[in-house]
Amino acid sequence: MTLTLAGMAEEVLRTADGREKTALSHRYAAMWRESRAAGAPIPLGTAYPPMQPARPAKPELLAPRDVPKRKPGSPEGRKAILHAIAHIELNAVDLHWDIVARFTDIDMPPGFYDDWVKSADEESKHFNLVCDRLEAMGSFYGDLPAHAGMWRAAEDTAEDIMSRLAVVPMVLEARGLDVTPGMIKIFQNAKDPETVAALEVIYAEEVGHVAYGAKWFNFLCGRQGLDPKDEFHGLIRRYFPGGTKPPFNDEKRAEAGLPPDFYWPLADELPPAWS
């Protein structure tokens, strides 16, 4: 059976255990990079990705309103923060492999696949960094309940690559740029330099993931003769009818190729300059 990139992506999606999934993700990302560097890239192929990726028996997945709230300054609260981040990172691994496997019918340049394979590889690293910190604290991924809605964005955008790019990297991952500095501060205050270092790696690399979303969204708009800002606004109003919520990390969003006029007009609360 011929090895294909889409088939590799599907295999990652169908692997349940987080550590095993991310190990496979690392291995396949390395194989893709090596094949590209050798000038003989693994063929894209086609795949049949599941609508939901395989997941371990734990954590228990709850509706967002049912996930217990803990004080972030307490040791248990800090464990809960890291558990939530691990859950986000594991979903991100699958989201990035899913965009590789799901949209093979759309003609995209090889760089599109380079970017999302690299992103999946980095998200795999992030998951393991956070799991290592959880285990150092006497916990583990699966020890607490987690948000059941994390994969909803993938299901909602499974038929439209532009919606996927707008919703996942350009909104959900961009939100990570907004909130991660506050989480870093919590662990700085707790005098936990190892966790701070892990979060700083995640923060730095997530800028690139948002940038890949903006890059390929703009590419597709240009190919179809669409105005990127207008198209983005229309899609986000469809998927987030209540608007997006500030505060926004304007500096990091700009670094990722998201200018303020992309997201501030969608906010549920405008700053004075936009009123």
From TrEMBL:
InterPro entries: DUF455, Ferritin-like_SF, UCP012318. SUPFAM superfamilies: Ferritin-like. Residues 44-76 are annotated as: Disordered. This is Rhamnosyltransferase. It comes from Celeribacter ethanolicus.
